[in-house]
Design a protein that fits this description.
Keywords: Isomerase. With 279 residues, the protein is α/β, with parallel strands linked by helices. The protein contains 9 helices and 10 strands. The protein has one domain: Divalent-metal-dependent TIM barrel enzymes (TIM Barrel, Alpha-Beta Barrel). The strands form 2 sheets. An 8-stranded parallel barrel has the order 1-2-3-4-5-6-7-10, surrounded by 4 helices. It has a two-stranded antiparallel ribbon with strand order 8-9. Strand 8 and strand 9 form a beta hairpin.
């Protein structure tokens, strides 16, 4: 029922795009979140190397193995404090938006970054100024996306300026763009204090902005020393069977991208997900 996928860079030692396609085909995976600069950085560094020809060739190489790009990944620090570096990052994202259709990707995704050059936890991300900076940037990106007939996917996270379900709703209201979508990773909104209420947190997200949720990121986690630590699928305390059953009712057919599950562990995860989703 679901479109189950993985991040391309979670499959290691793939020398070419065709290699990646073959590996995905062997795993019976037909959807990939494709981060060009992480899987094959030499082909798109600098981003001026990217062309419609390269995008279409990538799309075809994967399609030959029955794989589609469900998410085009271009994770940037959209509120970098150095305005020159911020502008370069935004222009890179806009370049990906301009070629998304050539990749056959419906959506280009990013998180919302950090007020510091290096992305990490800081309470300074929770200020009104940081939020308003994100609003202005996302307005710009959705305007560019509209010119190219594609979507912008924003992924909230507790370490970022869009750090809660309520702040996500505020962003959606402030930007007011039909082509703004949400990439929901529940683990990004869970803390060591709240993880036992994960179902309530997920339900709240769907109550507030379920109509905007277009892609799910799914990663398991453990709680250690008061921290949420991502782990491979099935090795943590994420209530995955409940979540999949919930999604079957709320978003049948949605793209689910596995995270933090790599190489040989992917096959087991995909098999388990298919079994649970078919129940």
């Amino acid at each position: 029922m679901f479109s189950i996928g993985v991040r391309g860079h979670d499959l290691s030692e793939k020398q070419t795009i065709a290699d990646l396609g073959s590996a995905l085909e062997e795993l019976t995976i037909q959807t990939v979140q494709f981060a060009f600069n992480m899987s094959f950085p030499e082909l798109v560094t600098p981003v001026s190397k990217l062309t419609s020809g390269l995008a279409m060739a990538t799309r075809q190489a994967l399609a030959d193995k029955n794989v589609r790009i469900g998410v085009l990944s271009c994770y940037i620090n959209m509120i970098h404090p150095d305005l020159v570096q911020r502008e370069a990052a935004l222009q890179r994202f806009e370049t990906y938006l301009s070629y998304a259709n050539s990749f056959g990707a419906p959506l280009v995704a990013t998180e919302t970054g950090c007020v510091h050059p290096e992305i990490h936890y800081t309470a300074e991300n929770y200020t009104e100024k940081a939020f308003q900076d994100v609003v202005q940037v996302v307005k710009r990106l959705t305007k560019t996306a509209a010119q190219h007939g594609t979507l912008v996917g924003i992924e909230p996270g507790i370490n970022h300026p869009i750090y809660s379900p309520e702040k996500t709703l505020a962003l959606i209201a402030a930007v007011d763009a039909t082509n703004l979508k949400i990439v929901l990773d529940p683990t990004n909104l869970i803390t060591a204090e709240t993880y036992q209420k994960q179902a309530d947190i997920i339900q709240n997200c769907f109550d507030l902005f379920g109509h905007k949720i277009d892609v799910i990121h799914l990663k398991d986690f453990i709680v250690k020393a008061g921290q949420i630590i991502p782990v491979a699928f099935g090795e943590g305390v994420m209530d995955i069977p409940w979540f999949l059953n919930f999604l079957k009712d709320q978003k049948p057919g949605i793209t689910i991208i596995l995270e933090e599950t790599k190489d040989r562990k992917i096959a087991t995860a995909v098999e388990s997900m298919k079994e649970w989703s078919d129940r």
